[in-house]
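User: Hey, quick favor. My workstation is busy. Could you predict this chain's structure for me?
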Amino acid sequence: MNKKINMYFAPYKACNLRCSYCYVPEYNKSTTKQDDLRFLESLSEFIDKVETEGYEIGSFCLHGAEPSLMSAESLARAVKMVDIHWEKTGSRNAACSHSQKAVAIQSNGIRFGSKYLGILKHELGSANRVRLGFSIDPPKAVHDKYRDNSFDRAVANYKEAIAMNFPVSILSVVTNETINYLNEFREWMQTQLRFKKKHGNPYRVKIKFASGDMALSEAEMERFAFFLLEHDLTSLVQILSPGYCLQSGNECQWFEFDIDGNCYSCNKTFDDEGIFANWRGESFDEIIKKRAELFANTAEHKDCGECQYEYLCNSGCPADRIKTGDMAGKAHECSLIRIVYDEVINRGQNIAEFYHSNI
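Assistant: No problem, here it is.
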């Protein structure tokens, strides 16, 4: 069996929004996007290298600044390239969380209007060949504050994508501003989850937590945990759901590659300091070895080894753990994890069954 690489591929450093919590540092942002042809040539070169060295692509997501800046025709060509690779390696119909592998794209969604989506669907021949991830941070007041007043456009396009039968997911960032709008947040999320249950699309609705100045305080994280439990919304949380890199701890093996040849651990390290190799100049054997060493010795809190839930979270993402104070070295979501699993036990539920039910 070929060796697998689970990855993001960043086509640009340019974006059509100026989100307050963008992970790309200012010095690394471009005011104009590079030509689509350069991206397509780089992707083709990358896939050829993967195959030549006896590897195969596992999960593939276009992510990095704003991938939808490319034309719908270019996006369709990229999807077809990866599909052909999966056909060659015999992994096109490999078991995954859905019926068939598909290229994913994580986007702010504001270019995914009916015209763009219509061209994309036509070029691909089927909406099921790509999965569209929308970054929407409800409610409108929060989203618009941090994402250039784009809520209405993003939601309208999200609904249009569903109407056109594209598999759609939602990824929302929870900030300390979200705490001021919990009722509105709850109502919006419950609406999406009801639609998911009835129609199967969106196929996924998840949240992650902001870090830095916009992160929840420990008190706010605890409040949010009890809020999720009260309204049966724990399935939203990535680190409480199976299949996410967050639970891999220091042994995480996800990658982000860009068209310039740079290798990063993921989008959380999408800066000059995060570059650890060059896929054009080094073999994937070398790159994977270097990747495995990146966080191998990243500190975990001394309490983690004694925690009964550590086997599920592995102290969280090593690039995003709490950095300072008494909780330094713990998962960013530590308080929430502890509160939720304590309550699961109090209710007489099996933790493993609870965890695997949060699809």
